[in-house]
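Researcher: We're teaching a course module on how sequence relates to structure. For the next exercise, students receive a sequence and then see the predicted structure as tokens, so they can try to spot secondary structure elements on their own. Here is the exercise chain.
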Amino acid sequence: MRICIITPKLLRTDGQGRVNYEIAQHLLKQGHEVVAVATVIEPELKGHLLWREVTLPTWVKVALGKDHFFWSQAGQAIAHERFDIVHVNGLSYGPTDVNACHFVHRSWLRSPYHASRHFRGSYALYQNLYSRWMARWEKQAYQQSRRVVAISEFVRDSLIHDVGVEPSKITVIPNGVDRREFRPLEPGEPNLVRTELQLSDAAFLVFFTGDITLNRKNLDLVLHALVRAAPEVHLAVVGASQRSPYPALAQALGVRQRVHFLGQRSDVAALLRGADCFVLPAHYDPFSLVVLEALASAVPVITAPTVGCARFIDPGRNGLILRHSNDLAGLVRALDGLVADRTRARALGLAGRAVALPLSWQTMAQRYEHLYQSLAETRPLSRQHKL
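Model: And here is the predicted structure for the students to work with:
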């Protein structure tokens, strides 16, 4: 087949980009021709697929303007080409074959924790307008796609109830994880994160990673829990801290000495496997690759029902789920319970690893390939697309 994948970034380090990178790699290995429309791609893909580069002008500053420019240019880039399948990610300006949903803006807009309710002034207004515009745009895009892929059951429910997509039109294909990169700490292997932070054996290290410039990942709750949790609990935070309010919040709460802001890191896998626990009580996260990565690393996970990967967890058996994303008392109890019984914590982590093992990138990519084949077989090949 000749397959076109349209995504702003085709990079291993980008969440949506990583999914599309793995799909492209698999398709190339199976002998398919892949055309990528993106602003940037992994260097190793160059020469193996056809890249239709979209360059964003420097004068476009806001996200909505960048989205509009990218998708209008993407449509022009393939206007006169023929493909068996066109795969987009959330947005488009015309009919497509597969639209993979990585985020439901209408669901996030309805959340009581949406940024427009958390901040004030012009920034809150912009966040509200941006989410409303994106919600209308993506609804139109899903209506014009032959099949919509939900990356989790959580997203499927949102597409049905918040966007109005017909259930029969939705296929659920969970994202994957590299089980060799994200693995348990082996006996005798140096614990890089504890060594870097110079923590004693008595310390219990909680790991958090994500965007810490906004409130959606909910580092707020973790910092407030640290105030009430056992004194040996430390927190390692990975994420760009420029313009982040959280170092100041940690200072104001009196826990700054137990919170370690590590900045943006490229060695997350090596750091994560050395943690005693991973926490992500996000107010809204359609999937969360890092939760799956923590499970694969055999690190016990505490998360919220508003995180897509929570559907993989059987509470008390292979992880812990809070009652809701602002369950402070529940998070404190969960942390103190793991600190007091570290044997149980390790058992939860190993059971979580078993959950993650079947969810490989290869399995995910094969499911996308099978979907493409089934769609291509239902109509004549070599259709010309005009987005």
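Model: If you want an answer key for the exercise: The chain has a mean pLDDT of 94. The chain has 14 helices and 17 strands.
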